[in-house]
């Protein structure tokens, strides 16, 4: 799960909303479309310009610069990271309309509003940029939508954000929602499936990923539809460990069992997890908490194991 640093950052989020769209709820539940409509796993699975697992990197933009993702290359010239994730936007709860609302704190707002400065430099190198979504202690989350209509309304907000800010997709992280606050409901079996189904319909060619943690991790199918048929990737959430996410519908090439915290996981452990990722044939290696400081020596231990190339800091 996320570190103590991450929790403290979330608790200090300032009350500034950039995108606040009202949602319309509906009590009548809609049946899901068949899985055959999904094209979730159509993306290429190799790293940019190199055979091997994709590198996925979360950046705490409250304290670190997203542009650091583009500063690291392999010695063959390819980017080290294939996907950079803006951590994080939130699901807030509007107590008047009793609906979920997408919320950006000032740091996330700065990154998105200045996409040419922070996002485009990554995309120009072929790196995909996702926006991570998680709770904000207000009772609203990805697993307690009570109808397809309410899930669709929030999915529309997410799709609008991706379109408005020129992003490559959405990452779901079911943490810090504090389900039950403000009189909200507890997690249910249909909500997360409704949400990813609705978002996939709105973003058929964009990336949807799942940080394998929280109530959503045990609510991955409903009415015969699996979350794995709608999302592209899922990865382990416990840093310094190796554990394959149990997401029905995703192949090994779309899963990441290895997860590290760059500032906390030892270099030896990180390299060992990289070696195991390759030997077991998985397609994702997850990095968390890329700092502003030059970390190329540490990262070289990983890249040598993943690709046979060291890492350079530009």
Automatic annotation (TrEMBL):
Gene3D superfamilies: Glycosidases. InterPro entries: Endoglyc_H (IPR054861), GH (IPR017853), Glyco_hydro18_cat (IPR001223), Glyco_hydro_18_chit_AS (IPR001579). Residues 1-24 form the signal peptide. The keyword Ligase does not apply. Residues 53-309 form the GH18 domain. One of its GO terms (biological process) is carbohydrate metabolic process. Pfam families: Glyco_hydro_18. PROSITE patterns: GH18_1, GH18_2, PROKAR_LIPOPROTEIN. One of its GO terms (molecular function) is hydrolase activity, hydrolyzing O-glycosyl compounds. NCBIfam families: Endoglyc_H (NF045482). Belongs to the glycosyl hydrolase 18 family. This is Glycosyl hydrolases family 18.
């Amino acid at each position: 799960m996320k570190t103590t640093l991450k929790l403290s950052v979330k608790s200090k989020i300032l009350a500034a909303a950039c995108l606040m769209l009202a949602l319309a709820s509906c009590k009548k539940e809609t049946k899901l479309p068949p899985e055959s409509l999904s094209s979730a796993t159509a993306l290429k699975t190799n790293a940019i310009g190199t055979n091997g697992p994709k590198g996925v990197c979360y950046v705490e933009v409250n304290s670190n610069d997203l542009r650091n993702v583009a500063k690291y290359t392999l010695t063959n010239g390819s980017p080290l990271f294939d996907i950079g994730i803006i951590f994080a936007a939130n699901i807030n709860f509007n107590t008047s309309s009793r609906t979920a609302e997408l919320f950006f704190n000032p740091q996330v707002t700065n990154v998105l509003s200045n996409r040419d400065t922070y996002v485009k430099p990554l995309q120009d190198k072929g790196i995909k940029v996702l926006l991570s979504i998680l709770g904000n202690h207000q009772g609203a989350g990805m697993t307690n939508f009570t109808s397809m209509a309410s899930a669709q309304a929030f999915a529309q907000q997410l799709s609008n954000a991706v379109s408005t800010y020129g992003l490559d997709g959405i990452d779901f992280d079911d943490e810090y929602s504090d389900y039950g606050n403000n009189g909200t409901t507890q997690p249910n079996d249909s909500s997360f499936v409704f949400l990813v189904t609705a978002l996939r319909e709105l973003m058929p060619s964009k990336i949807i990923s799942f940080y394998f943690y929280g109530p959503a991790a045990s609510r991955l199918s409903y009415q015969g539809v699996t979350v794995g048929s709608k999302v592209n990737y899922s990865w382990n959430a416990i840093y310094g460990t190796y554990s394959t996410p149990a997401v029905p519908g995703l192949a090994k090439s779309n899963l990441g069992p290895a997860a590290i915290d760059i500032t906390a996981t030892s270099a030896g452990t990180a390299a060992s997890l990289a070696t195991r990722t390759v030997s077991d044939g998985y397609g994702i290696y997850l990095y968390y908490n890329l700092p502003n400081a030059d970390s190329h020596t540490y990262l070289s231990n990983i890249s040598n194991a993943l690709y046979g190339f060291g890492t350079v800091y530009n």
